[in-house]
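Renewal narrative, Specific Aim 1. Our central claim is that a sequence can be written position by position from structural information alone. The example that follows is taken directly from our test logs and has not been curated for this report. It begins with the structure tokens describing the chain, in the order in which they were read.
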């Protein structure tokens, strides 16, 4: 697409910007569709817990904070403050995405942005984030002892893993 001043805008998925934006949209839609299905169609609240494996159950858990319920927002002011913080972080990530030179960076940032927006939409709509997958082990403490997450969280984690891979690859190739 030709723009003013002779610049061309690449609207294909070869463009890091477009790839990142598409990844964000797909991540957001996947997360919101899954939550809609779990809450309104499947009715997970009436069926929980559902044991999938000895270490993974399907449950309904409302997270009023961020990861591991940190910064739990119990009143409206705290909830909107946390939502504002989330959206400010997403704005920063979008700026980074817009300037991302590599497709892998853009893909990773898109997954993180889409997942974060999915969780922000929950906070706005329900006052808390809906989590469904309960990963548990016999470990008494630590991050894997008890962890409840949703599709958005999984996509954010995948995005972070891709960012680490991209950083390792660009460091090895001498591209900082």
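The sequence written for that structure reads:
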């Amino acid at each position: 697409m030709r723009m003013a001043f002779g610049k061309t805008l690449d609207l294909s998925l070869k463009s890091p910007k477009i790839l990142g934006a598409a990844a964000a949209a797909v991540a957001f839609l996947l997360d919101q569709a899954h939550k809609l299905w779990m809450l309104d169609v499947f009715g997970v609240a009436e069926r929980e817990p559902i044991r999938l494996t000895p270490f993974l159950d399907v449950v309904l858990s409302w997270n009023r904070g961020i990861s591991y319920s940190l910064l739990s927002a119990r009143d409206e002011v705290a909830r909107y403050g946390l939502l504002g913080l989330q959206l400010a972080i997403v704005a920063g990530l979008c700026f980074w995405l817009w300037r991302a030179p590599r497709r892998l960076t853009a893909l990773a940032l898109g997954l993180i942005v889409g997942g974060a927006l999915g969780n922000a939409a929950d906070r706005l709509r329900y006052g808390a984030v809906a989590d469904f997958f309960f990963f548990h082990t016999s470990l008494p403490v630590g991050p894997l002892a008890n962890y409840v997450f949703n599709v958005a969280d999984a996509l954010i984690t995948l995005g972070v893993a891709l960012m680490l891979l991209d950083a390792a690859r660009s460091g090895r190739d001498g591209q900082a």
